[in-house]
């Protein structure tokens, strides 16, 4: 099969073994044989970030946003959720909160600098004092994106987890583009709910979104008046726990591919995968430096899984032309997403290796040498 290298921030490049794992005899997803596939997927996804004793993974058919929407619409009662917005995905969580009529506070933060934790803590303190005086809800949840794929900034969820501990707040993390790419320890980081999907750093096919939840926290959501049907995480969890089935039709073949992707991730280990991604990133950054192309995010706060490149002030430069040049040579890049600066994005997640990145950098050089 032709090998395309996807340098867009997901779906990511997959191995042939993951692609071919989808070719299986037809099977009804309510059969035990298929239940064991889903049980494996759920159990092993949990293992990547926590123990199955304390945590559980709830699967949904849908893209990643489904998992984020599932958490937000299922676990917040009538108290307040504080949402950190330092990119498009933080903003999306605010949109979800708005639609479900949640009691939320938006904490806007720079898209290119670290979150001001002092200021954040002030917001929590001030709100909790007011809630005592007015006898209304305190902040019960905090939601944050781990790796903001908008820019490539990596938010420090460990420090946020400590703040949450101090104020008895449950932390929700959108780890869509970091799960299985950057080591995460839900217990150590004090994460109660984590959202991710099958098509980013876990290197599977698009179609499954999942929530890893602290079982104790999840059990406490049983009596919240439901705002959702399909996306209710407690209902999905309790049905799965007893039957090893999803309540609604799962994307059958995507789950076979995900099983294979998990086997490959475990074989590689997340630590080594992170190292591989970072090595690809270094090659990219060296290439960008040579071409005098600047990066939007400082190295010390970058995920090194995605790079926002500031568009050069060259007369003949046009993103579409650059994209098409690279695309016809097997590489896909992605447009930028922030308003303050013109950028394009290059992700280095997926089944890609240093040689792929070296080839990419060479073609990028060729292109820019040609247009100057
Ligand atoms: C990819 C991504 C999502 C989900 O996007 P979908 O298009 O729904 O898969 C959510 N949050 C972050 C940080 C992401 O990178």
CATH homology-level superfamily of the largest domain: Type I PLP-dependent aspartate aminotransferase-like (Major domain)
- Helix/strand class: alpha/beta
Q: Evaluate the radius of gyration.
A: 21 Å
Q: Helical percent range?
A: 40-55%
Strand content: 15-25%
Largest sheet: 7 strands, mixed
According to CATH, the fold-level topology of the largest domain is Aspartate Aminotransferase, domain 2
Keywords: Aminotransferase, Pyridoxal phosphate, Pyruvate, Transferase
Domain Aminotransferase class V: 31-343
Cofactor: pyridoxal 5'-phosphate
GO molecular function: 2-aminoethylphosphonate-pyruvate transaminase activity
3D architecture notes:
The chain is an alpha/beta fold and 372 residues long. The chain has two domains: 17-267, Type I PLP-dependent aspartate aminotransferase-like (Major domain) (Aspartate Aminotransferase, domain 2, 3-Layer(aba) Sandwich), CATH 3.40.640; 269-371, Aspartate Aminotransferase, domain 1. The protein is 42% helix and 17% strand. The chain has 13 helices and 14 strands. It has helices at residues 16-20, 32-47, 64-75, 88-99, 117-134, 157-166, 186-189, 215-219, 233-243, 252-268, 270-290, 319-327, 354-371; strands at residues 5-6, 55-61, 80-85, 103-108, 139-145, 147-148, 153-154, 170-174, 191-197, 208-214, 306-310, 331-332, 334-335, 343-347. The strands form four sheets. A seven-stranded mixed sheet has the order 2-10-9-8-5-3-4, with helices on both faces. Strands 11-14-13 form a three-stranded antiparallel sheet, with no helix packed on it. Strands 1-12 form a two-stranded parallel ribbon. A hairpin with a 7-residue loop joins strand 13 (334-335) and strand 14 (343-347). Helix 2 runs parallel beside helix 10 (252-268) and helix 11 packs parallel to helix 13. The model has no long low-confidence stretch (mean pLDDT 97). It binds pyridoxal-5'-phosphate. Residues 9-10, 63-65, 68, 89, 145, 149, 174, 176-177, 197 line the site of pyridoxal-5'-phosphate. Pyridoxal-5'-phosphate (PLP) is lined by residues 9-10, 63-65, 68, 89, 145, 149, 174, 176-177, 197. Pfam families: Aminotran_5. Homodimer. It is an enzyme of class 2 (transferase).
